[in-house]
Design a protein that fits this description.
about 400 residues, mainly alpha, flat
Length: about 400
């Protein structure tokens, strides 16, 4: 690879006022922390400024934050850092041979700092999973009322705080307790969400049990044919994805489990195979089913088959959503089963979660002001909003009560 030509091309485009997107780590990986950044990004930026003195370049770090990493169709937030304007001093040092390496190193540190502001990192997978679980325990039970921006801000502050406090005894002790809680969840094959939503009320449990059974049967009836058609593709993706993962893992020194390779492989395969499946199913429809709708007219049969082909992806997507609902209700059924037969254990796990929630909130309230200057201000705003919401809810209840009283008086 001729790097000189690449740099010349980049400097030329930047000189024209164009933007450049680059992955400074130099490749994809599934580690929980950043790889050492490559110096090429600094040469591109400083070199362009040296060639074009009147040019102004700002560096913006972009981070992808998944709400549930490695989960298909997980919600994510794309976060942008504040633009970093490269100071003229670095450009001047870059043009001096003896100071060129130092200028690149200084800029690289600034870029890494910006990247860490918009990404979530941890020393290992185990610690990252425990921090994610601690974050979920800390968040309010009515988290669905918060906007994605508010949730992201909470996640970011939580991770930043834990990364600062990770070596302190209180944080270490809390993460050990979180690890024990996670092991209890794994022993009973439960999720934290299941423990949070479990209500020890017999009538509610029975209602939710039969509602989930009905929901599973309904979604399965709707999606069974579509899932049966898609299953061979899913099986093929799983087998070939595992082969690709092992090959990538064997040939890489930066990958941990190769999850990024599996995801990319499945996406590429799906884009190749799914259109063929749609064409095959449409062919079956054309030859065996369209005559009953379009008669012997080829035009009518072609028209119906085209409509069928267009709706194939939509139906497939709806089947995937239905499968998700089946899995959701299956987890609910399983949780209700444990409540019936392992009530004492479930109560113990719920008690563990409540204690963890108290611990993490105490830790945040004590250490938060030391880390974030605006901690008390944000906390006060949240309390005021909570007060307004409660007052609004109380007002609506009072209005409903007044209406009931008026109706009762009218009847009398």
């Amino acid at each position: 690879m001729n790097t000189a030509k690449i740099y010349d091309s980049v400097w030329r485009q930047l000189g024209k006022g164009q933007s450049l997107a680059i992955f400074p780590e130099g490749g994809s990986h599934d580690r929980t922390d950043l790889l050492p950044l490559k110096a090429g990004v600094t040469i591109m930026a400083l070199g362009a400024l040296a060639k074009h003195p009147n040019l102004k370049i700002s560096i913006v770090a972009v981070g992808l934050k998944y709400f549930n990493p490695h989960k298909f169709r997980s919600k994510l937030i794309v976060e942008f850092s504040r633009p970093y304007r490269i100071p003229q001093e670095l450009v001047d040092n870059y043009q001096v041979k003896e100071k060129k390496r130092e200028a690149c190193s200084t800029l690289l540190k600034e870029i890494e700092k910006k990247m860490r502001e918009v990404t979530l990192t941890a020393p290992s997978y185990e610690i990252l999973r425990n921090i994610y679980l601690a974050r979920d325990v800390y968040m309010p039970s009515n988290v669905e009322k918060l906007s994605d921006t508010e949730i992201n801000e909470g996640y970011k502050r939580f991770f930043k705080g834990f990364n600062i406090l990770k070596d302190q005894p209180e944080a270490k002790e809390f993460l050990e307790d979180i690890d024990l809680y996670r092991k209890e969840l794994r022993a009973f094959n439960l999720r934290d969400q299941d423990v949070l939503n479990l209500k020890m009320n017999f009538c509610i449990i029975i209602y939710n049990f039969f509602y989930s059974v009905f929901a599973i049967l309904f979604y399965m009836a709707f999606a069974l044919i579509g899932l049966a058609i898609l299953e061979p593709m899913g099986l093929y993706n799983s087998i070939t994805g595992e082969v690709a993962r092992k090959e990538a893992l064997a040939g890489s020194v930066v990958k941990v489990v190769g999850a990024d390779v599996v995801a990319s492989h499945k996406m590429v395969n799906t884009f190749k195979i799914f259109p063929l499946i749609c064409m095959f199913i449409t062919g079956i429809y054309y030859f065996y089913f369209s005559p009953y709708l379009g008669g012997d007219s080829i035009i009518h049969r072609m028209f119906h088959s085209t409509i069928f082909f267009i709706f194939c992806p939509l139906y497939a997507y709806m089947c995937i959503l239905a499968r998700d609902r089946v899995k959701h209700h299956f987890y609910i059924l399983k949780a209700r089963f444990y409540v019936f037969f392992y009530t004492e254990h479930v109560l113990t796990i719920q008690g563990m979660r409540n204690n963890l929630k108290k611990k993490v909130r105490h830790l945040v309230n004590v250490k938060g002001p030391e880390i974030f200057n605006d901690f008390e201000e944000i906390k006060q705003r949240q309390l005021e909003r909570l007060y307004k919401e409660n007052r609004s809810a109380t007002s609506r209840q009072n209005e409903a009560l007044e209406i009931e009283v008026e109706e009762a008086l009218e009847e009398l």
